[in-house]
Design a protein that fits this description.
This protein is an all-alpha fold. The protein has helices spanning about 5-20, 20-35, 40-50, 55-70, 75-90, 95-110, 115-130, 135-150, 155-170, 175-190.
Length: about 190
């Protein structure tokens, strides 16, 4: 049985991305996109371009990923991409209206979806974009609960970091540092994938 060149290139790209070899990852994902612009190839290239500092290219490829996922009816996966786009439009480009639009789109896509980790990412994104420590904490705690219930260490670590930030902003120094320390252990202990 012959192997699928796109699948092989995406696999090579993911390995290079995991190893921090951004150029090799970019080359593999770009070749995969040339073969077939699958969501895996487009998303891999978008993530790699982000690491290479090409924010515009990253956004372009992740928007293309979103469009393909929507056409396939993969709403939770599309919603997770929309949340990433919301953060990047605000943090990297300073475009609040676009950020708000992507958050609203993610929320709309999740309206009828089964509860799962992407709902935690929605809470985390809302909390991360807030400047109010109480709102930040509420969203972080919701995301943390979802992350733990779904055994999602990436979500759990991100939620702990946001919770720690919210606590520090609220003047709860010891609890905030403890949450940040726990987040670092999840990350440095090799539990996270992204």
């Amino acid at each position: 049985m012959a192997s699928d060149p796109t699948v092989d290139l995406v696999s090579t790209g993911e390995e290079a991305l995991s190893a921090g070899d951004w150029e090799a990852a970019r080359d593999a994902f770009a070749a995969a996109v040339d073969e077939e612009p699958s969501p895996q190839a487009l998303d891999g290239l978008g993530r790699t371009l982000w690491w290479l500092g090409d924010v515009d290219g990253a956004i372009e490829h992740r928007e293309r990923t979103y469009a393909v996922l929507r056409k396939r009816g993969e709403s939770p996966a599309a919603a997770k991409i929309a949340l990433w786009l919301a953060r990047e439009y605000l943090e990297a480009l300073g475009n609040q209206p676009a950020s708000n639009g992507w958050i609203a789109r993610a929320q709309g896509l999740l309206r009828d979806a089964e509860p799962g980790p992407v709902h935690g990412w929605l809470s985390l994104t809302r909390g991360g974009l807030s400047s109010d420590p109480d709102e930040m904490r509420t969203h972080a705690e919701a995301a943390l609960e979802i992350g733990r219930a779904n055994d999602d260490p990436d979500l759990e670590a991100s939620a702990l970091a946001l919770l720690g930030r919210a606590m520090l902003l609220a003047g709860e120094f010891e609890a905030g540092i403890a949450a940040l320390d726990e987040a670092m252990v999840v990350v440095t202990g090799g539990e996270v994938a992204d």
